[in-house]
Design a protein that fits this description.
It is built from 7 helices and no strands. It is mostly helical. It has a domain of 114 residues. The protein is elongated, with a radius of gyration of 29 Å.
Length: 186
Amino acid sequence: MAITIKLNGIASEFQMQGFTPTKWATADEKAKIANKMTRFVLGGFQQGSFNKAMYQHLSNMFGHIAHYDINGFYSTWFTDIKSCRDWAEHITGNWLSGIGDPMFTWSDVEKALIQWMKDNEIAKQIDELHQLDVEHKERTMLTALQQKYPSKGTSLQVEEVTHVPVQFPAARIASCQLSLFQEDGC
């Protein structure tokens, strides 16, 4: 089930002064993409908010790969609560996140987004939603099974268990093992 509610938190207002320009991107562009990312997350990872520019930058951050195209990337990380939770854990726990010189990478944006996610407890919120989703699915399954297999008014009872002592002829086993190397065997 996709996230159908907005997450709690404050959308960032990153400024270009907080980022280092690269040969390929200005500090202002980094700030704009970071701000769009926070709105995308807070909005519940809605596909309509995930555009090509965001995909092109995000697929090169946090140790991500392209996943073939924008649709493959989105379906891998954002189509349901579990994948969103996995993404949040991936970016906040990935040792590759924030590595590199910000003059050549978006490591400064990665660090800023990770800190923003921690400050707004995004992973915790998504985890709580995931737990509610799992519980809902399990209760739905339970209801369906109870309807399929209604109680007949009697409860199943386990009969008394009778313990049967088992004895292993340890001495014989040991002597057979020794005799494996003899011609007459056991």
